[in-house]
From TrEMBL:
Protein name in the entry: UPF0045 protein
Organism: Kitasatospora aureofaciens
Gene Ontology terms: cellular component: cytosol
Signal peptide residue numbers: none
InterPro entries, A to Z: MTH1187/YkoF-like, Thiamine_BP, UPF0045_domain
Domain (Thiamine-binding protein): residue spans on this chain: 3-92
Amino acid sequence: MIAAFSVTPLGIGEDVGEAVAAAVRVVRASGLPNRTDAMFTSIEGEWDEVMPVIRAAIEAVKAHSNRVSTVIKIDDRAGVTDGLTAKVASVERHLANG
């Protein structure tokens, strides 16, 4: 499965980079395939691998704020591995072919 999620601390002002970095550190330390962009961090693995990482990322942000907002989108597709790369490669192939 691929889970795209964002964890936003509330009540600490506009600059949330330090708190978000704490969450991304947790994801990267997990060893699971992941990718971070301006809006979400995506992580790939089995349900029982991914969900504890997301929970730990939320807890890391809570160290900076008593209140957080979390958005999670999950693509749970049996038999698919390397989806983070394969999905983007498919779109790039279609773009290259016009």
